[in-house]
Amino acid sequence: MFSGLTGRIIITVVAVLLCAVGLTSLLGYNKYKLALANIVEGRFRFVLGDIKNTLDVSVNLGVALADLRNLQELLDREKTADDQIQLIEVFDADGTVVFSTDRSNVGQVLPEDWVQLAFLTTTEAWKLHEEDGHVIGLTLISSFGAPLGGVIVSYSHAAIDQKLAQIGLDLGQITVGVIAGYGIVLVFGLIIVLGRPRRQLESMRQSIGQFLVPGGVAVPSVTDIDHLKVSVKAAVGAIDEANCKIQEIDGST
Amino acid sequence: MTQFSDSESTKGFVTKLFVLVTALLVLAAGTAAFLIVHVFDRDLSPELDKKAAAIGRSVARQVAFAAEHGIPFEKLYGVEAFLDQVMRGNADIASIELADAAGRVRYAAGRKDTAAVDTDLLELPIDADGTNIGTVRVRISQAYLERELSGILYDVLIVLLVALLIAMELLLVVMAVSLFKPIEGISVVLERASYGDFRFRLPVDSHDEIGRLAEVYNSLARRLNEMFRQLVDDAEEVRLGQIDASIVRQVEGVVSRLTERFNFAQGKLLETFRPVSAHAVRAPLFVFIFAEEMSRPFLPIYIRELYTPIAGMSMQTAIGLPIAAFMLTIAVVTPIVGAVADRYGPRTMFLIGAVPSIIGYVGSAFAGGLFDLIGWRVLSGAGYAIVYLACQGYIAQNSLPESRAQGMAMFMGAVFAAGVCGPALGGILADQIGMRSTFVVSGGLCVAAALALIWLLPADAIEPEEGLRRVKLSDFRVVLTSPGFSALVVFIAIPNKVALTGFLFFLAPLFLDQLGNTSSETGRVMMIYGACTALLTPLAARFADSVRGHRHIVTVGCGLAGLGLLPILLQPSTALLVVGVLFFGIGHAMSIAPQLALVPESCPQACAELGHTTVLGVFRILERLGSVIGPFVASLLIGIGGPVVATAGMGALVLAGAILFGLYHLARPGSRAVVLEGRSP
C-alpha cells in the first residue's frame, strides 16, 4: 500500500504531522524547563533576599556578622521548610563561613571563585552552576559601601531534573498518542480522498491494456481515450493493410 | 485529454486533499497544545505554591517578631508599604493579606479583586510566643501562569503555521512529482499518439497506478512499433528480392504512405518523454530562503554580541556592516553570475550556490568577531544570489511566455511563504537553543534544500541551452534616460528598499530587544510583514490590474508604509512598532507587484529597445542599492536621535518618496497608464 502514490502522500503527510507535533512538544518542553527554572530560582532568590534583609537591618545597626543572635535559627528554619535547599551559609569579607546550616562548614573558607564572584557582583544576585546543584548569592555591603561578606543558598537540581524527566515522559506520551490517533484518521482520510483518482488511473490502464488483447484490437468503451482508440485502431488497420499489400506484391511476382 | 487530468477534477481533488491535511494538522497540533498546557498547569502550580509559602513564612516571621516586641497586631506601622515591596519583586503573587485572629483583614497589598476565582489561596498562621495572632493569606496569580502558558501557545501556533506551510509545500512537490508531472506526460504522449505519433514512451519511475499505466501504454506503443518494424523488414526483404523497379517503387510506396500518416520510432528504442515541472525548484527554494529568513529576528542582536569597539565607527554602524555586506554581495554577484548561469544550468548553479551558503551559515555560528561574521555573511550572500538566480532562471526557461507570470507567482509564493515562517521559527529557536545553534540549523536546511533539488530535478531533466539576455552596463544609460523610470527608482524603489533593510532587518530587531522583547516575540512581529506580503500581494496585484491604477496603488501603498512608522514618535512601545510593521507590510504588499508593472510602463522606448526582462533586471539592480545603504542610513539616524527618530525617519523617507512620486505624476498628466498584458507577477 505504501509503495504507490497513496503511500507516498501518506508518508509525506504523516512525516509532517510527526514533525509538527514533535516540534510542538519539544518547544513546549524547553519552555517548561525555562518556566520551571525561573519559578524555582525566584523562590530561592526570595529566601536569599529575605535573609539578606534581616542581615542588613542588624549590620546597619552596627552589629558584627559573627555576633548576630537568632541567625542560625533562621537559617535552619528556612532549610527545614524547603527540602530542595542543600545549604545556607553566611560568610565574612574574607570568605570565611560564619553561619551555616551545616555546622561543620563554619570556619572554612569558601571556594576562591565564589568569593571573587561575590565581590565582583555587588548590586545583584550572582549564580553558579555546581555539579550537585545551583548556588545563588547576595553580597552584604556596609553603609559606607564596603563589602562585608555575603549570603548563599545552594539548592539541588535533582528535584528539577526529576520533574523534567517526568514532564518529558508525559510529553512523549502526548506526542505518541496524538500522532497515532490523528495519524490513523489521516491515513484513512487520505485513502478515501485519493481513491477516486486512483480508480480513474486504474480504469485508464485497463482501457489501454485492452488494446493488447492477443489477436486483435478490442477497443474499450472509455470515452476519455476515444481519440487514442481511433488512432491505434487506424494504425493497426493501416499496418495490417500494408502487410497485405506487400504480401500481395510479393505473391504476384 | 483524460478525465483525471481535467483541471476541474484535479482542482477538486487537490482542494479535498489540502482541506483534509490542514484540518487534521490543526486538530492534532491543537490537541497536543491543549494537553501540553494542561500538564504544565498541573506541574507548575505546586512550584508557585512553594514560592507563596516561602513569602508567607517571611511575612509571618516579620509580624511575629514585631508582636514579640510588644507591638499589637492592629497597630503595626508601615505594613502595607512592606507588603507592597514584597509584591513588587514577585509578579507571580496576586495579593498578600494579613488577617487578625478573628479573621478580619487588617492589612493588604496587591489586587483588590483577589476573591476572583482565578487565584489560588495559601494561608499560614502567625504565631507569637506560642499564641496564634493572625493569618497570612497569599494569593497566587493565575494570570502570571497564564502568561507563561500563553508563550507556549504562541509557540505552538507558530509551529502549526510553519508545519502547515511546510506540509503544503511538500504536498505540492509530491503531487507535482508523483502526480501532476507524470499525468502531464501521459496527457501529452497520449495526445500525440491520438494524432498518430507513436515515437514516445513514458518514464516508469514508480510502481504505483501511474507507473502501471505508463507500463501499459509503453507496451502498446512498443507493440505498434514492433508491428511497424516487422512490416518494414518484410517490405525490405521483398524489395531486395526484386529487380523490377516498378515493384520496388510499389513496396516503397506502401511503406511511405504509412509513415506519412503515422510516426514510428526510427530505431529499436522509443524516445522517453519527460516533462519538466516548475514545482521541482519550489520546495528547495522554500527551504533555502527559510534558512536565511530564520536569522532575521536576531541577527542584529547577534552582531551586537560580537561587537568590540572599532576606532572611528559607532556601534550602530558596525552592527549594520554584516547586513549591508550581505545585501551588497547579492547586488554584485547577481549580474556576474547571471552572465554565466546559462552555461551551467539551474541545477548545477543551485548546487554551486548551496556550498557558500552552507559554509556561510556554519561559519556565522562559530564567528569569533565582527569581521569574521562579515566574511561569513558575504559567503551566504553570494550563495543566496546564485540560488535565487538559478531558481528564477529555471522558471523562466521552463515556462512559456504566456505562463511566465504564473511561474514567477509560484516562485514568489515560495519566497513569501518562507518569509512568513522563517523569522517566527528562527526567533523561537534562538530563544531556546541559542543564536549560534540556529545558524547551524540554517546550514542544515541548506543541505536539505540541495538534497531535495538533487532528488526533484534529475541531471537529465530538459534544460534549454539558450537563456535570457543579461543586463549590460550600457543598458543602465538607456533606461535611466526615461524620467518616469528614474522617478520610480528614486522616489519609490530605493527608499522602500532602504526602509526594508534599514528598518525591518536592522532597526526593528534591535528596537524590539531594547523594549524587552525576546527573539520569539521579535520573530512573531517580523512574521507580520511576511504574512501581509504573502496574503495581500496577489490580491493587490489583481486589484491594481482590474482598476488599471498601478501608479495610484503604488503611491498609496508606499504612503501607508511610511505613515505607519510615524506614530512611534508618540511613545516608544512594542504595540506601536507592531502597528508600524503591519502598515509597512500592507503598504509593501500593495506596491510590490504594481511597481513591477509600472517599470515597462514608465520607459516604453527602453523596453522596445532592450526588452522587458532586461529593463526589469536594471530596475532590480538599482533597487538593491537601497538594500545596501539601508543599514547605514538607519545607523546614522540612530546616532542622531535614537531608535525612535530612526524609525520615524525611515517612515518619513518612504512617505516623502510616495508624495514626490504622486506629485511627479500629477505634474505629467499626459503620461496615461498603458496597460500591458501579463506583466504582473
* Average pLDDT taken over every residue of chain B: 82
Given the helix and strand composition of chain A, which structural class is it? Answer: alpha+beta
Mean pLDDT of chain A: 80
* CATH topology label of the largest domain in chain B: Growth Hormone, Chain: A
Work out the strand percent of chain B: 5-15%
Query: Main β-sheet of chain A: number of strands, strand sense, barrel status?
Result: 5 strands, antiparallel
The residue ranges of chain A in which pLDDT falls below 50 over 5 or more consecutive positions are 213-224
User: Strand tally of chain A, please?
Assistant: 5
Strand content of chain A: 5-15%
Helix content of chain A: 55-70%
Query: What is the second-level CATH architecture of the largest domain in chain B?
Result: Up-down Bundle
H and E string of chain A: HHEEHEEEHH
Unreliable runs of chain B, pLDDT <50, ≥5 residues? Answer: 1-6, 671-681
**Oligomeric composition of the shown chains:** heterodimer
- Apparent shape of chain B: elongated
The best one-word shape of chain A is rod-shaped
**Total number of helical segments of chain A?**
5
Largest sheet of chain B: 4 strands, antiparallel
Which CATH class of the largest domain in chain B applies here? Mainly Alpha
Estimated structural class of chain B: mainly alpha
